[in-house]
Amino acid sequence: MKSSILKIMVIDNDPQSREAYNYYFSEYLDYELTGIYKSAKVALQVYDDIQPDIIVSEIPTTGLVGLESIRKFRKKNPNVKIIIVSNQSDFTFIKKAFKNGANGYLTKPMTKDRLHNALNAIKYEGAAISNDIAKKVISMFHRKSYNYFSKRENQIIDYLFEGETYKTIADKLFVTPSAVNFHIQNIYLKLDVNSKSEALEKLRHLDCA
User: 182: how many CB neighbours lie within 10 A of its CB?
Assistant: First the structure.
């Protein structure tokens, strides 16, 4: 990415957030705020006139439609960098954001320094991610397999930690929901628990042992 002052487009429909963004960019010397828009639809309408280098887009908790707008910006310019800002820290949602073409993901609350660090990461490294999200990703790779569970049971345990449902686990493993239920009942039996919440709590303690 070019090293001159970069143009930033912000998408956020919250008045307080827009006020904060105006303040943040008044303090930055290396980034120019070209505009704050209430929706991706409005931002897309003026995109060709602005040609931003980076888009900072707030996505609400139920923002899957907002994630799809990333692809529309990509059609405008495959090289534009896009940072998603959201309250949502669910791993599956975050994966969907990157799958749709996001270059960065930040969880709220936003601060002047966090945003500036993220913009610098995008500018110099091409990607940015919140520390809390990075820790979650690392923990996913560090999660150990349990010797007293089968390979399939360990796969299902990983998905349970990610917050997946019986149906989505079945879809990912190409099996029926009843087969997933059978394995989960075996997991409960081995752990001597009666619910998903009890199972995950016990497994967390085993992780720490």
Answer: 12
Tell me which residue of 140, 71, 122, 80 sits closest to 99, measured CA to CA. 71
| pTM value > 0.85 | no
Whether the CB-CB separation of 127 and 121 falls below 8 Å is answered with yes
Residue among 63, 131, 60 nearest 96 (CA): 63
State how far the Cα of 186 lies from the Cα of 35, in Å rounded to an integer.
55
CA distance 4 to 8: 12
Q: Could you read off the pLDDT of 144-191 as tens digits, one per residue?
A: 567 789 999 999 998 888 888 999 999 999 999 999 999 999 999 999
28 backbone dihedrals φ, ψ, rounded to 5° = -85, 140
Query: pLDDT tens for residues 47-95?
Result: 999 999 999 999 864 555 568 888 899 999 999 999 999 988 777 788 8
Cα 166 to chain centroid, rounded: 22
3-class SS of residue 78:
coil
